Amino acid sequence: MGRGISLGSAALIFASFVGAMLSMGFVLLISRRIKNMSMLIISGVMIGYICSAITDFVVTFADDSNIVNLHNWALGSFSGITWDNVRVMSVVVLLALALCFLMSKPISAYQLGEVYAQNMGVNIRLFRAALILLSSVLSACVTAFAGPISFVGVAVPQLMKGLFKTAKPIVMTPACFLGGGVFCLFCDLIARTAFSPTELSISSVTAVFGAPVVIFVMVHRQERVH
């Protein structure tokens, strides 16, 4: 008799959201005690290792038939997504997109600094909580079905910003949503066809294209500082 537990699409998103909020909660608690950015990053990496250890523990109690799926999920893959998953994700993503549009003015004010945003009437504490909840829901929605796909959330906004020559949220929000989808489909196509019939993990392909973008942005910013 199998020991695995099957979850529906909505329950899977909820479980992923709870995990994302727990991880975020640990990072926020640590950030109140540790002000050094390097130490904070190391703490985040350690939390990632703890989550990985929990995943390995869960694998121990999984059915043999589900271990392969879990392995593919851990590497990042769109191959296991069903139309039921797509329907549930569509509802979550469209609601998140609508909320992002509604928050475009507070985000624009926040880009100019917390003091400016407060002077414009933005409740900073509530605004931060809303951003954390919204980003956690979107991250949970994607990760629940496709696994941890690296560099998309970091590289795509920078590419869109360079393409449209603006950082206005009213432009960047739809640009990042659509650009992220196109980028992932492009990487998925390469992952499936580059070494066919062997399929690469999509996370490996996104890292190949995304990491140089992040490095370029970091170097460019450092040059502007000096």
Description:
With 226 residues, this protein is mainly alpha-helical. Helices cover 80% and strands 0% of the residues. The protein contains ten helices and no strands. The chain is globular and about 55 Å long. The chain starts with 8 loop residues before the first helix and ends with a helix.
Tell me the layout of helices and strands.
Layout (H helix, E strand, L loop, with lengths): L8 H25 L3 H24 L3 H12 L7 H20 L1 H8 L2 H6 L4 H23 L5 H13 L4 H25 L8 H24 L1
Principal-axis shape equals globular
- Average of per-residue pLDDT values: 81
Largest sheet features? none
Query: How much helical structure, as a percent, in the residues?
Result: over 70%
Unreliable spans: 1-6
Number-wise, the strands total 0
Report how far the terminal alpha carbons are from each other. Answer: 64 Å
Radius of gyration: 19 Å
Give me the oligomer status. single chain
Total helix count?
A: 10
Assign the structural class, choosing from mainly alpha, mainly beta, alpha/beta, alpha+beta, or little secondary structure.
mainly alpha
What proportion of the residues form beta strands (DSSP E)?
A: under 5%
Instruction: Write the element-wise H/E pattern from the N-terminal end onward.
Output: HHHHHHHHHH
